[in-house]
Design a protein that fits this description.
The complex is a heterodimer of chains A (about 475) and B (about 70). Helix content of chain A is about 45%, strand content about 15%. Chain A is α/β, with parallel strands linked by helices and about 475 residues long. The longest helix of chain A is centred in the last third of the chain and has 48 residues. The N and C termini of chain A lie far apart (about 80 Å). With about 70 residues, chain B is mainly beta. Chain B has one domain: Immunoglobulin-like (Sandwich), CATH 2.60.40. In chain B, the strands form four sheets. Chain B has a three-stranded mixed beta sheet, with no helix packed on it. Chain B has a three-stranded antiparallel beta sheet with strand order 3-2-6, with no helix packed on it. Chain B has a two-stranded antiparallel ribbon with strand order 5-8. The chains are: A alpha/beta (about 475), B mainly beta (about 70).
């Protein structure tokens, strides 16, 4: 009987294989930079560019989702002086959210549904046992047939579950139709390049693919597709089919390997997508592999004119006066017994160290890079002001070469468990697992600590003080 | 690495770097290190039509100067 059951299952699987869903990104017929989910296509009626706020939400399962939720809650309660002296909540000034893995659930939900986040996200996601729900889908005989198809995998099952039960089947077209910031950057990792892949129309232009019909849930699933546990998400590459013109900077950067390595590397990545013959499919895995805090994209936008949503362009044009970057990093640091024992750690422990250590080191370096850049820019600006003063003291008619340099005040704010002064409390949070199932009281503690860490951040306090005292 | 350039022209004009609006003439602009195409867009009442400098080794007190003349 058992043998016949298996036979029946295989037959059902083969039957459904032909009609299983295939690749879900449609071809773009004609490239048009004026349409699609891009930063420049989102309005900001109540949001001042002078105060430009970027949030980055790290990976880390429900722990990360709850921590970023707590930061949004605090921003919603924080009033600042906005346009025309009106009181405005800081959450309304958020321009961009760049998210990874667990943080992508919160970022995408807020971008789609706004402050409905605070009424139903806990019940729909944070306090749900998502792992049990996904396991239920996996072990449901209904889905075995779908999973038997070569074009339907475990990640598709997860994406479909998120689509139906969390994101109400909304697509990037719906996000665009909303037409308002924040611009959400859902980060995955291109498995072949090991680099960031962001669900924006600017990225999809390279594939000649239309992002607007892609479900937001699918991007979130790709962003949180932890290797091995979940299969990669696959996109079809239609490059060459839509009349896309490569940005000018790419050609220049390809000639500048020796003087601008990062720019050269970005150009190589960009060019690789244009080769649909050798890369007809793009496989995406968890965004945490390329950058677990979602900060690299914003850093590129802040310090490069090449970015599709270059903040540097806005700075040069004197649109941005204050730049706030809030990094919500749910990094843990679990206690281990490894160094108390002579015996070498087992395979599971070694694998854990191999995966976690490089991610944590890279995140640390990325945050340091941001801090150093902001300090350097501030010094550069001050050098110019100081030199001008010294020059004019001895020669009143003299001016420095070049014209005025736009002034920007930077507010780098890092929210993480390392900042907790209470070691027992810090230990509690740093020992939370990366899971999509946390107790309700732990969720509440994460929300509370996020708000507290933000309120206590010296840079956040400086921001609030400057916003209260600054002249127009 | 951020570099500094000033695009000089007798009037205030938008500066296009690598095909995108990137700032204004006669101000100090922050740019990526490397090679760029620079012009002033429409109307084309300037020479040369465009320039292609490789920007490296500048400072905020000594930006690279890129000049256009009005015709």
């Amino acid at each position: 009987m058992k043998r016949y059951s298996w036979l029946l299952l295989v037959c059902v699987g083969l039957f459904f294989a032909g009609c299983a869903p295939s690749l879900r990104n449609a071809q773009l017929d004609s490239h048009d930079p004026g349409v699609g989910y891009r930063f420049k296509n989102l309005a900001s009626p109540d949001n001042s560019d002078e105060l430009f706020v970027i949030l980055t939400f790290s990976g880390g399962g429900t722990r990360a989702a709850a921590l970023s939720y707590g930061v949004l809650e605090h921003l919603a309660k924080t009033e600042v002086r906005g346009r025309d002296e009106r009181s405005q909540r800081l959450i309304e000034e958020v321009d961009v959210i760049s998210s990874v893995s667990g943080g992508s659930f919160t970022g995408a939900y807020y971008a789609l549904f706004g402050e409905r986040l605070f009424t139903d996200f806990e019940a729909r996601f944070l306090k749900q046992n998502i792992e049990a729900k996904l396991a239920g889908q996996l072990f449901s005989p209904v889905n075995w047939a779908r999973l038997a198809s070569p074009t339907y995998d475990r990640i598709d099952l997860a994406a479909d579950y998120y689509d139906e039960n969390i994101f109400d089947r909304k697509t990037f077209g719906d996000l665009l139709q909303k037409g308002r910031r924040p611009y959400v950057l859902i980060n995955a990792t291109d498995m072949s390049l090991g680099s960031r892949f962001v669900f924006t129309q600017d990225q999809f232009d390279l594939l000649c693919s239309d992002l607007s019909s892609v479900p937001v849930a699918r991007a979130v699933a790709a962003s949180s597709a932890f290797p091995v546990l979940l299969s990669p998400i696959t996109l079809k590459n239609y490059a060459g089919a839509c009349g896309y013109r490569v940005p000018e900077w790419v050609g220049f950067a390809l000639e500048d390997r020796d003087i601008a390595g990062r720019r050269f590397s970005r150009a190589l990545e960009t060019r690789s997508y244009l080769d649909a013959v050798n890369r007809p499919y793009i496989h995406l895995i968890d965004g945490g592999i390329a950058d677990n805090i979602g900060l690299r994209g914003p850093l590129d936008a802040i310090s490069s004119l090449d970015s599709a949503w270059s903040v540097l362009r806005m700075i040069n044009r004197e649109k941005v006066r204050r730049l706030v970057v809030i990094v919500v990093n749910a990094k843990t640091g679990p206690d281990t017994e490894w160094d108390r024992k002579e015996a070498a750690p087992g395979v599971k422990d070694v694998l854990s160290a191999v995966v976690d250590a490089p991610m944590a080191n890279y995140s640390f370096e990325t945050i340091e890079l941001m801090q150093e850049r902001f300090k350097q820019w501030t010094k550069d600006y001050q050098s110019r002001v100081d030199c001008q003063e010294i020059l004019q003291a001895s020669c009143p008619q003299a001016t420095l070469p070049g014209g005025p340099l736009a002034k920007v005040d930077f507010y780098p704010i890092v929210i993480g468990f390392d900042s907790l002064s209470d070691l027992e409390e810090s230990r509690f949070f740093k020992n939370l697992g990366t899971t999509f199932n946390l107790p309700a009281e732990t969720i509440d503690r994460l929300r509370e600590v996020a708000g507290r860490l933000l309120a206590q951040s010296p840079q956040f306090q400086r921001l609030l003080n400057d916003l209260r005292t600054a002249p127009d | 690495m951020v570099e500094y350039v000033t695009v000089t022209y007798p009037e205030k004009r938008t500066v296009f770097i690598d095909g995108e609006e990137a700032g204004f003439t006669n101000t100090t602009l922050r740019v990526d290190e490397g090679t760029h195409s620079i012009h002033l867009g429409e109307p084309r009442d300037y020479i040369p039509k465009w320039k292609r400098p490789t920007v490296t080794g500048t400072t905020s007190t000594k930006p690279m100067e890129i000049s256009f003349e009005k015709v």
